[in-house]
Write a structure and sequence with these properties.
single chain; 267 residues; mainly alpha; 9 helices; 0% strand
Length: 267
């Protein structure tokens, strides 16, 4: 007699799990191959108009998200810190806690998640639409390398703009904390800013901002790769866009852990 553990349903589950692992390794391998091609293409002259257009799209048009997100995160962090440490005189450490938290973790990660979702989804939708409408095949027919034409400007622009947006995010988050410190906690602006300046060191800035170079490169690469492999018309573009947002967010969180460990050892 056949036991329950030997039913075809169990075999089907194991087969699906194995196929999922195989697809994941294949995805990482193809993504790595695209990264190598992108780095190789960086050695050649880059079309400046394409790069400038991507810098504007990724940087300037993402400022509104960065401004709103960062300012309110700084305000909330100041309020939570004051509430949690009120019995221990925590109001005096508002500037220290807000600035250090923003510089080392919150500003780089949350900025990358917010802007990365917008940027990565846009790249996937744009390139994916070109893929399903056979525009990329037309580029190859004209002896044009799609990686050089489509991927390199986007990856380079994202890698450049993410650290700059992180600096803006840090400044606005600290300013948001300053507003709460002055208006709600009755701490002078001079005391708050002095505690920020005395707390934040070069190592903290290097660690926080340095991670965003890798975040930007990874998010742009994922967005471009999912766009290049899109199939199935409009439905396929939607699925690829969703996959980019999810994969990009998970990648940022995983990379953040390992990069934090590396920077703690190096700096």
């Amino acid at each position: 007699m056949t036991t329950l553990s030997e039913t075809p349903a169990d075999d089907g589950i194991l087969e699906r799990v194995r196929a999922r692992f195989e697809n994941s390794f294949y995805y990482v391998g193809q993504l790595t191959d695209l990264a190598v091609q992108t780095i190789q293409q960086l050695k050649r002259p880059i079309e400046r108009p394409l790069l400038v257009a991507q810098l504007e799209q990724i940087g300037w048009r993402s400022l509104s998200i960065v401004i709103i997100t960062s300012a309110f995160i700084g305000m909330v962090l100041a309020l939570q810190t004051a509430y949690a440490l009120e019995d221990f005189g925590g109001k005096l450490f508002i500037g220290t806690i807000v600035s250090l938290s923003l510089v080392r973790e919150l500003a780089p990660v949350l900025m990358s998640l917010m802007v990365g979702g917008r940027v990565g989804a846009g790249m996937t939708a744009e390139i994916g639409t070109m893929k399903v409408t056979e525009q990329i095949d037309a580029l190859r027919a004209l002896a044009t390398n799609p990686v050089r034409k489509l991927v390199v400007p986007r990856v380079l622009a994202t890698t450049i703009m993410f650290p700059l947006l992180t600096i803006v995010s840090i400044a606005l988050g600290i300013f948001g904390g300053l507003i709460i410190a002055v208006l709600s906690l009755h701490i002078t602006a001079n005391f708050y800013l002095r505690s920020v300046i005395e707390t934040v060191k070069y190592n903290d800035l290097s660690s926080g901002i340095g991670k965003t170079f890798f975040f930007g490169f990874a998010i742009a690469l994922i967005g471009c790769y999912n766009g290049l492999r899109t199939t199935g018309g409009a439905d396929g573009v939607g699925r690829a866009t969703t996959q980019t947002v999810v994969t990009g967010a998970i990648t940022v969180l995983i990379m953040d852990f390992f990069l934090t460990k590396i920077f703690l050892i190096i700096l």
